[in-house]
Amino acid sequence: MRKISLAWQIFIGLILGIIIGAVFHGSDQVANFLQPFGDIFLRLIKMIVIPIVVSSLIVGIAGAGDLKQVGKLGLKALIYFEIVTTIAIIVGLLSANLVHPGSGVNMGSLTKTDINSYVQTEKQTHEQGFVATIESIVPTNLFESLAEGNMLPIIFFSVMFGVGVAAIGEKGQPVLRFFQGVSEAMFYITNLIMRLAPIGVFALIGVTVTKFGLVSLIPLSKLVITVYITIIFFVIVVLGLIAKLVGINIFNIFKILKDELILAYSTASSEAVLPKLMEKMEKFGCPKSITSLVIPTGYSFNLDGSTLYQSLAALFIAQMYGIHLSISAQISLVLVLMVTSKGIAGVPGVSFVVLLATLGSVGIPLEGLAFIAGIDRILDMARTAVNVVGNSLATIVVSKWEGKYDKAKAKAYLAEIDHKESEYATEAK
To answer: Pfam families recorded for this chain (predicted)?
Structure first.
């Protein structure tokens, strides 16, 4: 009997979820039945993310050496993150100015969604301020950060601990071997959990379509289509050019990450693919010391899909209300987004919270967000997939920048994937 690849299993789960959701649209009973299956899958992923990040960072940083080297690596990553996310913001603005997706939208035909929870989160974040957010990266209580899943303080501690393990030399070897064992055990568990991905995808997409239905997309179809086309352009052209500059074909990244991209898109959760993403980028020639630092940090600072959407959505709402934003106002919007999209990294519903923190600064009505909140899940799926591609490419760019990218290892991994695909094709015949 022919074995179906994980990518196909996830894709089948996605299609079946859409069908079930469309057939039982509006049925709370079906949604309530499916919800636990999706939630359990996401909880399983969240269960292993922190142990993998901590162990991989400690092993990677201990192997990288001194604090100076780590600081240099982190600075290069942050410079790259800022450049690419700024380009993403500009691409989103250019697209909105070209297409005008918000012009002519009848707000009377739209359904308002309650966004009070996002408003409260934005108020808390705004009160905290950017400087306080930077301060919060340094944990006062590691166990509190672990319990709350605050990734940036966890990354900070892991980096410092890894440097400490490297500094004490031979005495640190038992500690290093322990975390190597933890890392390998966690990746083994990841492979077990990934077998449940098709069920998780089926349940999560089924719940989404059951609750909102495909009909809810029609009034805002111009926004959805604009976001998707702009995102495809950004990935193929902008990220494609960056990849070409460092000697990589962007389609090879799609090839090695096809399972993860379908999973990230279906679940709208980048956390769901973080463990496999780190594992695959290491196989693709990036050293562990870079992979374990760049990818988790990028999950907070390198959200290309999210920042592109935020600028496009801001102009969409302005156009919907008939507000014309001058060039200077749009430049102001870019500058504000450059700060807010980084300053509140890791906050739940980050795209909405960033928009709430940004719209008021350029005179766009905040209540406009309530009109697009209902379709946010559909847009979030695309944003998440782009974030995954962006962070994968960032790892390669920083590896190349450091002169540590293993081209032969990457070529061998691609050949291995091609061989597996040809085996599947042979079995299909």
So the answer is: SDF
Q: Is the pLDDT of residue 323 over 70?
A: yes
Which whole-number Å values give the CA distances from 293 to 15, 72, 394, 398, in the listed order?
35, 12, 11, 10
The structure's pTM equals 0.81
CATH class of 6-428: mainly alpha
Give the C-alpha separation, 382 to 362, whole Å.
26
pLDDT 10s digits, 268-302: 888 888 889 999 999 999 998 899 889 988 887 88
